[in-house]
Amino acid sequence: MFTFQEGGASCHTGSYTMWWKNRWEIKRFDYWPSQSPDLSPIERVWHALKVNVQERKASINNIEELKACVFQERERLDPGLRCTLAASMLDRVQEVIKACGDHTTY
Q1: 87 assigned to some structural domain
Q2: Residue 4 β-bridge partners
């Protein structure tokens, strides 16, 4: 069984979103802090992807071109970035534990 993990951002907690997740019986955490990049390496991957797509925005004219651009840029992401972020997880978790769960204290 899987547990769906997402932040507490309003797009994840809105009434329609909650209705849909309940309707499909999506198992999820009761609470997960929003915007916690210290424990979410994917946020850094999303940022890198966003920067790369942003550099090409002038040549994107419709949703299909945007979709193609996102897929192309995803493939071009440095594999080392993902490895570095994965390798840093233990250190980040230890820092949060040391800060008693408050990611703003370090």
Answers
A1: no
A2: 28
The verdict on residue 22 lying in a domain is: yes
> Do 1 and 27 contact (CB within 8 A), yes or no?
yes
- List Cβ neighbours of 76 (8 Å cut-off, separation of 6 or more): 52
Give domain status of residue 11, yes or no.
yes
**What percentage of the chain's residues is helix, strand, coil (to nearest 5)?**
65, 0, 35
Quote the number of domains for the chain.
Answer: 1
Query: Is the torsion defined by CA of 78, 103, 32, 1 positive or negative?
Result: positive
Residue 20 lies in a domain: yes
Q: Which domain does 1 fall in, by range? A: 1-35
14-60 pLDDT, tens digit per residue, is 899 889 989 999 888 766 655 555 677 887 888 899 999 999 999 99
- DSSP structure class, residue 101: T
pTM listed for this prediction: 0.53
Contact 26, 54 (CB under 8 A): no
